[in-house]
Amino acid sequence: MTVIAIVGLLVAAGFAVWRLGRRTGFFLHLLQLEGYKRHEYTGWLRQNGRGLIIRVSHLLGAAILVVAVVLIRNGLPGTAVTIMLVLWPIAFASSRRYRRNVTKKPLVMTARMRRLVGVSALLATVVALAPAVWIALRSGPNVSSGSTLLVMLLIGFALADLLAPFVVWIAGLLLSPIEQRIHDGFKKQARSTIAARPDLLIVAITGSYGKTSTKGAVASVLGHRLSVLATPGSYNTPMGLCRVINTMLTRQHQALVLEMGMRYPGDIQELCDLVTPHIGIVTNVGVAHLETMGSQEAIAREKGTLVENLPADGVAILNADDPAVLAMRERTPARVVTVGTSQEADIRAEHIAFGADGTSFEVIDDTGDRATFSTDVLGLHNVMNVLFAIAVGRTQGLRLRAMAHAVKGMPAVEHRLKLRQEGDIFILDDAFNANPVGARNAVDVLSRFETGQRIIVTPGMVELGDTQDDENRSFGSYMASRIDIALLVGHRQTRPIRDGLLSAGFPEQAIHTFASLAEAQDFLRTIRRAGDIVLYENDLPDHYEEAA
User: Is 24 exposed, middle or buried (0-12, 13-18, 19+ CB in 10 A)?
Assistant: First the structure.
């Protein structure tokens, strides 16, 4: 093998390994964002894979390899190697999609991900080396030249690069029995821990939205009297709860406050089999996860599984303003307490007012006791979250005035309608997981400000199944009379919002659409003025961004 062939082999193969690692890492990250669920990962590939599975670089690389093979067969191996050395890195220059180093939700190198990385790397190596090994075994010592091996090696790397999304899927499949055994062990440990703590008060919260904010409010109120452990972030899956119970729960904790999330039928029952709560809260029944559940009625049935699992001496706290939730009172053996703004609610809020200083309202409970509450959080839905917490506090004998003090110091939940000031403008951060009701509440809060331009930055709502376009179109119509400027993120995805805005008479020149949040923020810096209020409504994770 000539010196130039050796150099070509090292440079081209090194670049191919780098590119393969970046691309495989991208799809491993995607699998993690989809909760390691292969069916959801496959669905994402079907819907968004065009331009990602087969890229222009694959076609250019194939053309270069064809030219190299022709040159070698015509006795020009040096020329073939030179062409590959020069053109291969150019053809396979990593796109912006793989070159991005900063992500909204970075890849977390958990033990499970390390196992996936190892198996994916092994599978990719087998695919990459297979053509070169095949030609070497086939030709034996008579293999024509190092140039031929180089071409076969690059063919292998190109094939591994092309198959990266499927290699990741197969790695997940091969590891699934091991992961299941690991999960079963975690669940067994968590059940044993809970069984050894009959004194522990367990409060579980489910609903289409508002779970995390309600959890924070309940923890603040109960913390006035008890030592409380609230699950961090959105730890609302079986493995999330297991991690909290197995690693964070101590003998000093007197109450455990947790969320119960769901995407598929049976999810809530699986969580109740893991942890049986004493108090169950159902915040609402919306259209979140309609894509996986099929109908709002199916969502209501699944959410109601929580109250069905409550013991007879337990308490079900239900949203009196949501008919689908209120109907669940017939499905539980537990005592029922209702909260809301209607006169029929056992615990209700009146005289609600909110602005730049936060929210104030009066609470009346079922004994006729009343107290004024104030909090830094904004929006009617946050008032409901506080009412749920008050209902929990009343089960523990807390008086309204004592809870008003706890709620006053309640911290706002990150990215859930949190108000902050940046220089001479205000930011309303409602960037977490928009839903139709929450999005409208956020726009209502935005409309109350009169200090400057009212600007919304949004990519719209997702995971709403067949109703997604209609919901986004309706959202556009709703916000038309309440905002001054709309910055939409994602040309395809936000088309229904644009249509809704225009149909409601919103001026077209006040609508601006961008491919990414970064581009929208760059434009925002050029138009903002002192006193403006900017609402960030939803911020989709990386796997929802349009391919670059």
Answer: buried
d(CA 283, CA 316): 11
CA-atom Rg of the chain in angstroms:
28
Kindly write down the DSSP assignment for every residue of 201-233, as one continuous string. EEEEEE-SS-HHHHHHHHHHHHTTTS-EEE--T
Tell me: pLDDT of 136 over 80. Answer: no
Q: Tokens in use for 479?
A: 């916000």
- Using an 8 Å Cβ cutoff, are 30 and 543 in contact? yes
Has residue 1 got a pLDDT over 90? no
CA 199 to chain centre: 34
Cβ pair 20, 157 in contact under 8 A: yes
Phi, psi at residue 454, to the nearest 5°?
-100, 110
Say what the pTM is.
0.73
- Please report, in angstroms and rounded to a whole number, the separation of the first and last CA atoms in the chain: 40
C-alpha distances (whole Å) from 222 to each of 59, 203, 227, 244, 275 are 61, 10, 8, 18, 19
Domains in the chain, ordered, with CATH?
Answer: 3-177 (no CATH), 197-408 (3.40.1190.10), 418-544 (3.90.190.20)
From residue 364, alpha-carbon distances to 297, 390, 392, 405, 463 in Å are 31, 10, 15, 16, 37
Phi, psi for 480 (deg, rounded to 5): -55, -40
**Cβ-proximal residues to 34 (8 Å cutoff; 6+ apart), any chain:** 40, 41, 44, 543
Local structure of 137: helix, strand or coil:
helix
Give the CA angle between residues 143, 146, 147 to the nearest 5°.
Answer: 110
State how far the Cα of 277 lies from the Cα of 2, in Å rounded to an integer.
72
Mean pLDDT of 208-225: 88
**Average pLDDT of every residue of the chain:** 83
Q: Quick check: helix, strand or coil at residue 197?
A: coil
SS3 of residue 364 by DSSP: strand
Residue ranges with strand state E in 209-297: 228-230, 255-259, 279-282
